[in-house]
Amino acid sequence: MAPLQEIRAAANLPGVSKSPSCSGAPPRRVALFVTCLVDLFRPSVGFAAVKLLEEAGCSVEVPPLQVCCGQPAYNSGDRVTTRDIARQVIDAFESYDAVVAPSGSCGAMLSHHYPGLFDDDPAMKARAERLAGRSYELISFLVDVLGVTRVTARYAGVATYHDSCSGLRELGVKRQPRRLLGSVAGLRMSEMTSPEVCCGFGGTFCVKYPDISNAMVSEKTADIAATGADTLLAGDLGCLMNMAGKLQRDGSAVRVRHIAEVLADMGDNASIGEPVRGTG
Amino acid sequence: MQSTAHDFKGNVGAALADPNLQDSLGKLKVGFSERRRQAAERLPEFEALRDRARDIKNHALANLDFYLEEFERKVTALGGQVHWAPTAEDARRIIGELCRSIGARTVAKSKSMVAEEIALNDHLEALGIAPIETDLGEYIIQLRREPPSHIIAPAVHLTKDQVADTFLEHHGKLGFTKRLTERNDLVAEARHILRQKFLDADVGLTGANFLVAETGSSMLITNEGNADLSNTLPRMHIVLASIEKVIPTLEDAAVLLRVLARSATGQESSSYTTLNTGPKRAGDLDGPEQYHVVILDNGRSSVLGTEMQDMLRCIRCGACMNHCPVYGAIGGHAYGWVYPGPIGAVLTPQLVGLEEASNLPNASTFCGRCESVCPVRIPLPSLMRHWREREFERHLTPKAVRQGLALWGFLARRPRLYRRMTALANRLLGLFGRANGRYGSLPLAGGWTRFRDFPAPEPGGTFHAQWQRRRQ
């Protein structure tokens, strides 16, 4: 944990402005933790993450034996399955310099929750802690660790950014996405009144308690509408699918994208839930 | 109070369909959190104080037996009496006997969540003793025969109009026949009626925010001063508090007070902070002749030393519910018992049983906003997750969830098989959904598609399939 934190501290020194490259250190061997939702529903986010990391000077690999971080089991109280999955992730990822996920929720699972799963197994706990110390959410990794201050991307529109809960509260992801979005040509930001309030996704919560989830996401989409933005961005695909699904059910024209797509200048494909032109 | 936590989903349905409740919640969500934020910002050492508050409570809990006994020694030396109540029933019995011992006919009560927990009012009424709630919010819901919906704002679920109707209905027979519309007029009318009841009461019953071991004092904070009238005017003062309220010193109380009011209402301190230290002494002008402290366990001591102990740090400020988007959507009654919101989701399974209350710790997105504002840094999401673990271990998790999880777990442990299944799912979902970009309904996903469309996957296969193709 310590060396990366030093780099992070150095990268945060006021007045230091870095070009989009690794912060003086040799290119990092970064493993992309794709996340199960990105794998299945929105591969663009994975490719956008690869592009951003490579542009920042990293060499990116995608360990093939990855599935999920284990949150569905973890948050359902199934410790045994969670530990099995965590062990699998540790096996697959521990040899890399850094593990990066385009999700605050999955990133926090690796960096904040894995060690606690192995309190009764010192050897595994040590491995989990090593992995935790080098696991990151994508946007904060770019800004805080690699020192990226701007991107070369263009996006015509007005966007509002939703702070997904785990990224915000467990990982401190707040100013980093706004900072990079500020460098996107043609993009104007319009903040919600309550960008930090949960959208009501919550993994299995949204199907176990659909009524409450609906009340929460309805409030969120009203807040989004009030910004006048034509695009909703966030850093977690689960939240994005929830909000996109609600916006579209309500007939809203707001386009919904993962922030990585816009930062990687890949914001011209069909947005989440939008029909793909020329197919079907 | 009879729990309806088992019917949480039914309660939620009713709450979401109640326009008055939704109106009230809309105001609460903005008001409390904004005031707390400003109060925290005004105090540079607020975060450091939260650490100290946490440490004080942890220390007190680690030495709870010592401080409780010290508290009892001090109270006894002052001429008061401590009564130990292992269960709610014991507490009811003790209080009933104390009231009867002086032939009490009325009891002036200041707001006490522990009194709600042991359903004290019903018990007193059964004994022919009239409990009179003197906190304005509690008074309103007592008239309406409703339970509190919030631990510091018990009538927060009601609109002003509902209060006006309630007063008109109940105060008419006392000669107040005009329907009031102004907030101040409503308060003045309640105040007028309550004043005589304070003077008539035989017993004053209060809760306690803290029990201070070094002095034997019970400490109470209010904004209405009703607790002070409840504990000085009647002949007997009964303090009802649970075991985890004890703290070592007045210095500790000072730290906790600094985070309590700010977290609760955004005030720097509440209007009234009162220390009650024993009965009236020779030469005192006023004060109760008898001073009793009833200390309730009701299952709390079994939490000590377990992974759930942190819940006992709670100082009942209500910040967790003020910031909880689930509470903000459904209000307090939906939780079905005395303590709502995130702290209720953690306490209730302990106090009424996990079978009864298993929905409560599940009905959270783990957004973490509660933990981020808790003045004593209770890791509420982790505690809710611990309940889910116990639920899973005890096979209480609903069968459908368990089966889905087992299937998913089977695949997730076999990455190659999982990869084939996701590729198939990707193809099928893409095949039927791509033309529209999304699904309006989807088998097995009714919980999602009842309110939301379900986005179809992008074309081209899963990320891993595409990645492999590109690398070949």
Plain-language structure description:
The complex is a heterodimer of chains A (about 280) and B (about 475). Chain A is of the alpha/beta class and about 280 residues long. Chain A is globular and about 50 Å long. Chain A folds into 2 domains: about 1-145, Glutathione S-transferase Yfyf (Class Pi), Chain A, domain 2; about 155-265, Rossmann fold. Chain A has helices spanning about 1-10, 35-40, 45-55, 70-75, 80-95, 105-115, 120-135, 140-145, 165-170, 175-180, 205-210, 210-225, 235-250, 260-265; strands at about 30, 60, 100, 135, 155-160, 185-190, 230-235, 255-260. Residues about 1-25 of chain A have low confidence and may be disordered. In chain A, helix 13 links the parallel strand 7 (about 230-235) and strand 8. Chain B has 23 helices and 12 strands. By secondary structure, chain B is α/β, with parallel strands linked by helices. In chain B, a hairpin with a 4-residue loop joins strand 5 and strand 6. The termini of chain B are far apart. In chain B, about 50% of the residues lie in helices and about 10% in strands. In chain B, helix 3 crosses helix 12. In chain B, the strands form 3 sheets. Chain B has a 6-stranded parallel β-sheet with strand order 1-10-7-4-2-3, with helices on both faces. Chain B has a 4-stranded mixed β-sheet with strand order 8-5-6-9. Classes of the chains: A alpha/beta (about 280), B alpha/beta (about 475). At the A-B interface, helix 2, helix 3, helix 4, helix 5 and helix 9 of A face helix 1, helix 14, helix 18, helix 19 and helix 20 of B.
